[in-house]
Amino acid sequence: MEDYSKLRIDPGAKPGAHALRKPVRAMYLAAGAIIIAILATLMGKAWLDGAVSVKVAMVSSTFPAQAHTLFNATGYVVPQRKADVASKATGRLESLHVEEGSRVIVGQVLARLENRDLLASRNRAAANVDVARAQVNEAPRRLMNRV
Questions:
Q1: Do residues 113 and 119 make contact, with C-beta atoms less than 8 angstroms apart?
Q2: Dmax over Cα atoms in the chain, in whole Å?
Q3: pTM reported for the whole predicted model
Q4: Local structure of 89: helix, strand or coil
Q5: Distance, CA of 36 to CA of 43 (rounded, Å)
Q6: Which residues contact 92 (CB under 8 A, 6 or more apart)?
Q7: pLDDT tens digits, 53-87
Q8: CB neighbour class for 96 (10 Å; exposed up to 12, middle 13-18, buried from 19)
Q9: Among the residues of the chain, which ranges form H helices?
Q10: β partners of residue 96
């Protein structure tokens, strides 16, 4: 008979783990060796090639029109003279003969206002003046007739 007393089972070991240890360890070693070979190749290539020369240049964007201009500026146009126009009398605008920003000359009619109300007021004032003159002219005769 054989002596089986030397055979023992480790109570903490997983079943079948001892059979997989050697192939897994070999696989880890092979993967590590491949990674080390790749890193060594890349580092060796960088050391053997030396420094890479780089050319530096300034870049600016220009428009085609700027290629031939000597001076370029931005801003807005302000007129040398500005005239504010107002009417002495109020009324409705009958017609407008100019537009904003248009050039005008001295004496040019810019706009016409409705003047019917103003004409009626003027005529009323003229009639009141005529009545007052007539009363002034009549006053001496009335005084003479009373005496």
A1: no
A2: 185
A3: 0.32
A4: coil
A5: 10
A6: 113, 114
A7: 778 888 777 666 556 666 667 888 777 777 788 88
A8: exposed
A9: 17-49, 116-146
A10: 111
In this predicted structure, the answer to whether residue 143 has a pLDDT above a threshold of 60 is yes
CA 126 – CA 120 distance, rounded (Å) = 10
The rounded distance, in Å, linking the Cα atoms of 67 and 60 is 12
In contact, 115 and 91? CB cutoff 8 Å = yes
Residue with tokens 């055979």: 7
Please report which helix (H) or strand (E) contains residue 111, including its range. Answer: strand 111-113
Cα separation, 61 vs 63, in Å, equals 7
pLDDT at 20: 53
